[in-house]
Specification:
Length: 227
């Protein structure tokens, strides 16, 4: 009986680890245009990952373990901080993921360990950006979380944010599809304009993210950049 009393609270603590997590990726216009033109094959993008935790104390206790887990799927991963927002607590790490020319995607992605990428292609003079999830590796990640913590990651638990930075001096006309731009909804596709050195905060819509998890690719680019 005493052994049961010890094990049950431990299982409850592990099961309290939330599975909702948010990725926030920085993309630079000049990098995307170089990739689209085939002048480079891949560039690293900085990413911040926020994992919801049951408490700030649990965040501190599990920071090394969770950082190590995410390090299996992103490069140069480092623990950032424990943060609170309203009633929610988050463990935050920083790392990098590949942004890849779509023409070289098959070869380059086979060498990478991650499950989340951005593919860049060209349509005329425009750079087209599409997120990509490797379904097999993402499935392995979900299974690993389930095995360790007894938590099932659902398709709606992933949220994707993008900071699109126009690091050029000139204006860029951007088409964004199925997303929020600076919290304003774009249900289908709509235009925005970024002046030189300006940026936009883009949140991929929930339905688009769930479709991405299920299919691996969206049916059309999330972002299209035109000079």
């Amino acid at each position: 009986m005493r052994r049961t009393r010890i094990i049950m609270p431990l299982m409850l603590v592990l099961m309290l680890v939330a599975c909702k997590f948010t990725t926030n990726t920085e993309l630079y216009v000049t990098d995307l245009e170089l990739l689209a033109a085939g002048k480079v094959e891949t560039v690293p993008a900085n990413i911040s990952v926020a994992v919801e935790m049951p408490s700030s104390t649990k965040c501190q206790e599990m920071s090394r373990e969770v950082t190590s887990l995410l390090g299996q799927y992103f490069s140069k991963v480092k623990f950032d901080k424990c943060a609170s927002e309203g009633f929610n607590d988050y463990l935050m790490v920083r790392g990098q993921l590949p942004v890849v020319s779509i023409d070289k995607a098959r070869t380059l992605l086979e060498r990478d360990k991650g499950f989340l990428f951005f593919l860049v292609g060209q349509e005329g003079s425009m750079a087209e950006v599409t997120p990509y999830i490797d379904k097999e590796r993402y499935g392995q990640f979900r299974d690993l979380v389930d095995q360790r913590y007894g938590v099932a990651i659902e398709s709606g638990d992933l949220e994707m944010d993008i900071v699109l930075r126009n690091d050029s001096k000139g204006e860029r006309k951007i088409q964004v599809c199925s997303a929020y731009v600076d919290r304003a909804p774009i249900p289908l596709c709509g235009p925005i304009t970024l002046s030189g050195r300006e940026h936009a905060n883009i949140q991929v819509s929930k339905i688009q993210t769930e479709y991405l998890v299920k299919k691996g690719l969206t049916d059309y680019p999330i972002i299209t950049i035109n000079k």
